Amino acid sequence: MDKIFIRFAFSSFLLTTVSVSYAQETNHAGYYVSAKVAAVKLKADNMETSLRPGIGQFVAGDEKKNLTNASLGFGYDFGNGWRTEGEYTFKNDAEFTSGSSNFPTSFNHHKVDTQRLMLNAYRDFEVLNNVAIYGNLGLGVAHIESSGWQGNISRQYLANTDTQLVYSLGAGASYKAIPNLNLDLGYRYVDLGKAESGLNNFANARGLQDEQMKAHLYSSEFYLGARYSF
């Protein structure tokens, strides 16, 4: 969890605490559908834990990617400031690189495809007429497919899939444009868990199948969203 996220989380907590005295019912109880589009910074951490024995020191490569993702949700507003929502985030792909000091031109290329299904809880606080701030927590499942190659594309790693529990934390603001439509602007931090390829499917210098790409994925997301209630 980087310093930017810690500062954001602390600031959001203070803002929510200050605003709690203004909290009041912001919506009528009922179901809603939602959609979000997000600007994402996906970070691959812990790539130095990859298995690449006997070939020198780890050399960092491209560990961050800027992406765009989209999601759809279906939720229920309890009418008392609380909301719950099921949300599916569509598949997105990225590629990260890392190398070794003994083979500076033979980088690992770790390709990941991520998608997730989350159960989110929101707490809304109305601060102005038709304007609210909120905090949210999400728990769910991420499905991550890993594959890639080393040095040149003919030297492939076996593919692997990881399905694991993940969490998210976030905050934002919403504006009620018309009685049934809310527009959201927010940020969330998502711990997507581990991403591990299969072992090397190519012959290495030792004649062994003992190499594997590893990473831990984190997603920082600024999003625009819309909620239509019915």
Automatic annotation (TrEMBL):
InterPro entries assigned: Beta-barrel_OMP (IPR027385), OMP/PagP_B-barrel (IPR011250)
Keyword annotations of the record: Signal
Superkingdom of this protein's organism: Bacteria
Any Pfam family hit: OMP_b-brl
Keyword Signal: yes
Cleavable signal peptide: 1-23
Outer membrane protein beta-barrel domain sequence ranges: 13-230
Name listed for the protein in its UniProt record: Outer membrane protein beta-barrel domain-containing protein
Organism annotation: Acinetobacter tjernbergiae DSM 14971 = CIP 107465
